[in-house]
Every structure is written in C-alpha cells, then in structure tokens.
Design goal:
- With about 170 residues, the chain is α+β, with helices and mostly antiparallel strands.
- It contains two helices and eight strands.
- It has a five-stranded antiparallel β-sheet with strand order 1-2-3-6-5. Strands 4-7-8 form a three-stranded antiparallel β-sheet, with no helix packed on it.
- The chain is elongated.
- The termini are far apart.
C-alpha cells in the first residue's frame, strides 16, 4: 500500500467521524419550537402609514386553531399586539383610544377586549414580543365563511386589514 492510499484512508475516516458527530451536535443545539412554528402560520402583520411615517403596527394571531381551549364554532379569538403613536389619541393609546377601531370586515365588533400584561401566559402564542407593543385578547362572535378579515382602523390615518383562513 502506498503512502497516498494511507493519507486518503485517514482523510476519509476524519470526514466520516466529523460528519457523524456533527449531526448529533447540531441536533442538540437546534431546539425545535413547534408552538412557535404553528403560531407563525396563524399570525399576520399590518401597518398604517401616513406621510411616509409608520403610525401604527398591528400583529394578530388567530387562536382558535392553536389551542383546544379556544377551539369554538361560536367565537373567534385573537391575540393582538399593537403599537400606535401617541398622536393616535390625545389621552389614551392603543385600543383604549377613541380614535382606534378594531372589527371584523362585515362590521362585527368584538364581544370582549381584554388588555394583557406583558407576562401573561397567553403571549406564548404570539411570536412577536416587543416593549413598545400593547397586548390584547379579542373575542368576536362567529363569522360564517372560510376567511376572517380583522380590520384595524384609525379615524385619522386609515386602516389595515389582516386576512386569516379558518
């Protein structure tokens, strides 16, 4: 056997050894988050822009397909993260402002709007977390159809529509 064959054999052994170890090492480093992946499928983002400035950002996650607790034929649940500039409303910002409206496309208003604290366990379902956002749990009556159109509107700056598949 030649010297080149021995070098080739060592080189082949090193490649096989590092490849076998690396797949195990990488699988330990990569932690799959199934909930995060699934929630991304049911999350949409919209913006309201006026005079080339972002006035509001809304990120909504449709909860019904994510958790059996919210699986319902007569209600639709959303977690909404909202950033709205202070000039949206003089006294209050977010959904507390009289200038902000949120509804389903056919004018269906929410049955309940609950402000969530930043440490609320429900926030595990929304893949976007930011210190600037205010978080809400919105409950709407059932809407017949294959899609839900969540509308966020500012009386001063316009609106954005987020479309979800049921």
């Amino acid at each position: 056997m030649g010297k080149n064959f021995l070098i080739y054999l060592i080189f082949l052994f090193v490649i096989i050894f590092t490849n076998a170890c690396s797949s195990k090492m990488y699988s330990e480093l990569i932690n799959e988050d199934r909930l995060y992946e699934k929630s991304l499928l049911y999350t949409k983002k919209g913006e309201i822009v006026s005079s080339l400035e972002t006035k509001a950002v809304i990120v909504a996650t449709y909860l019904n397909p994510l958790d059996k607790k919210y699986e319902s034929d007569d209600k639709n649940y959303f977690i909404v993260a909202l950033y709205a500039e202070k000039d949206f409303g003089k006294d209050k910002v977010g959904l507390e402002s009289k200038d902000c409206l949120v509804y389903l496309k056919r004018g269906i208003k929410p049955l309940d709007v609950k402000r969530l604290k930043k440490e609320d366990s429900l926030l595990k379902y929304i893949p976007v977390h930011n210190g600037w956002f205010k978080y809400y749990l919105l409950t709407f009556p059932s809407d017949k159809g294959k899609e839900l159109h969540l509308v966020f509107e500012s009386k001063r700056f316009g609106k954005t529509v987020l479309t979800f598949s049921k």
